[in-house]
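Run log, item B.
One chain of 425 residues. Sequence copied directly from the ordering sheet:
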Amino acid sequence: MFYKFICLTLPLQFLILFHSEVTLAQSNTPDTLKITLKQAEGLFIKKNLRLIIQQYNIENANAQIITARLFNNPDFSFSNGIYTSGQSGGYKEQAFSISQLFSTAGKRNKNIQLAKIGVEQAQYQFFDLLRTLKFTLRNDFYSIYFQQQSAKVYNEEINSLTKTLSVFKQQYQKGNISQKEVLRIQSQLYSLQAEYNNLQVGIDTIQSEFKLLIKEGPATTIEPQFNYDLDGKEVVSKIPYQQLLDSAYTNRYDLRLSKSSIQYNTLNLKLQKSTAIPDFSLSLNYDKLGGYGTNYLGAGIEFNLPFFNRNQGNIKQAKIAIDQSKIQLQSVQEQIERDVASNYKGALRLEKLYNSFDPQFKSDFNHLIQEVSINYEKRNLSLLEFLDFYDAYKLNTLQLNALQLSRITSLEQLNFVTGTLFFNK
């Protein structure tokens, strides 16, 4: 019976074990996420934790408006006699009072207006954070793409040299070539592998930041889907500098935040001045067995006498805050002007430089390196000429990728400093 049980369950156990191993292997296999820029921005908007945190700040600011609109609660007191050794029935004494605090000089309305400005500032901070993080996201996307294109060049050259090295070792063992040629190929291969490793470390670093922005798993490999189409195009020169500057003045949320700070501090000064005017409380009192007779009913008013404290310190601080916020606004405006001017010049320079290149050069050079490999295999080229051609090909391709990345990131920089998506839409 036991033997039959083992025979029946053993295949099932092997099946479960095999399935778990396959599942574990699949879970440990890094996924590749092919993603466009538009898709990445969609994930970023939905999942980025810093944006979600900032959205809570807006909700908190809205809650401050609710608080500012609420009136003060009335105060109520009641007392009841328990024992007296004097007048008979004194334990029947009962008294109560109710009072209400009233704000003067429009303090409540001023607090409501300050809370509303606080909501605007929280929104400006959210959109400025969105602008900054989106700039990082888009730059990372392009950096990953072009560095992966450079990595492909290394892969091609490493694979080619690996095959060549294998052939050379066989020829060396047969005595057809010298050891010097084998060592030269081997040295070049090791050098390329070291450069490739450094490049891959840089890609991994950028990918880590990019995956954090879109909340993607750390094991995922990002593969940006992008088609570079700026060859021969003049996109920067078509937009006047003044249009870029005007857009920055209109759409930069850090500038709006600075302007809002002046409004906030100006209103706060009015609030601090009104605070110097005392609030007052109205009260109604009842005493069943008071000293003036039974069932005494009275009314009263209470307020501070502003002889010493007239809120002088807070008023002075509010005035200083206004002057400070005006200086801050001027600083932000000047920084915007410098940023737009310098980035506009840089983008124009890169556009002119890149458009000066022959667009056919890249394809011609790729064809040339293929012919070089064929001619070297036929021994029509020496080893030194072969390696020189490969170095030139690698250097040219890497420089071209770097230049394309510099050009497209210069356009992103203009988008960032103007607060408007003029380019790379």
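Observations after the first pass:
- The chain has one domain: 29-418.
- Residues 29-418 form a domain with the Outer membrane efflux proteins (OEP) fold (CATH 1.20.1600.10).
Flagged for discussion on Thursday.
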